[in-house]
Amino acid sequence: MEGNKINHMKDPKHKISLIIPAYNEENYIGECLDSVIRNSNNELFEIIVVDNASTDDTKKEALKRPGVKVVREERKGLTRARQRGYLEARGSILAYIDADTKMPEGWVKKIIEEFDKDEKLSCLSGPYVYYDMPKYKQFFTKVYNYVLIIPMYWLVGYVAIGGNIAIRKETLDKMNGFDTSIEFYGEDANIARRAYEFGKVKFDLDHFIYTSQRRFVSQGVPDTVKEYGLNFLSEVFLHKPFSNEYKDFR
């Protein structure tokens, strides 16, 4: 583990560990961390980048930012990187974002407020807003949220987006952490489904985070929506992902 020791948090009531899995993210991790440092308002207990078997300068870029710790996870895979972050974190609430996301102002404050007012809340999540997507395409992603995600949330009681999630450490303890047998698709649905067994899972459309559209561009919108949809339904009804294979888009 490497990094500068800085106390980010002003209010000790909630110790929020921000965890960012990163595989070959040298082109994105800097802007991600800059947005975190700029917009977290010193309310984070720690910032952990999990270098997930990267072969580029992800670690070097991350360590350019003050107060960032970098830990290495040699077993490639998103859930294994999330698990390493869980094992390293010292906070009471673990927040996860992706390396290609940009934190908006008020994101951490929203987490504090939601967990403050509801002791039964185990997990909080929200949607993506694609910062590099044309506005006409963004309209369709909003339709997707209202037509598919929100009705499913009402129906089953839980939905989560893996790159925009905050979960109590004690909930993860009860869950025995993340299911590291899942390679990629369905991992966020798995988190939400299992967290729901121990408390409320809230999906709030106002609690968004900015992210890139690189998967949509590389994989195509129909295929991407299909993969996420099928894997969510498979997790809900079969308690396992539909797809075992995925591609990295960098």
Structure, described:
It is a single chain. 40% of the residues lie in helices and 19% in strands. With 250 residues, it is α/β, with parallel strands linked by helices. The chain has one domain (2-238): Spore Coat Polysaccharide Biosynthesis Protein SpsA, Chain A (Alpha-Beta Complex). The strands form 2 sheets. An 8-stranded mixed sheet has the order 1-4-3-2-5-9-7-10, sandwiched between helices. A 3-stranded mixed sheet has the order 6-11-8. Strand 3 (46-51), helix 2 and strand 4 form a beta-alpha-beta unit. Helix 7 packs parallel to helix 9. The longest helix has 22 residues, at 135-156. The radius of gyration is 17 Å and the shape is globular. The protein starts with a strand and ends in a 12-residue tail after the last helix. The model has no long low-confidence stretch (mean pLDDT 92).
Output the keywords.
alpha/beta, single chain, 11 strands, Spore Coat Polysaccharide Biosynthesis Protein SpsA, Chain A, three-stranded mixed β-sheet, eight-stranded mixed β-sheet, 250 residues
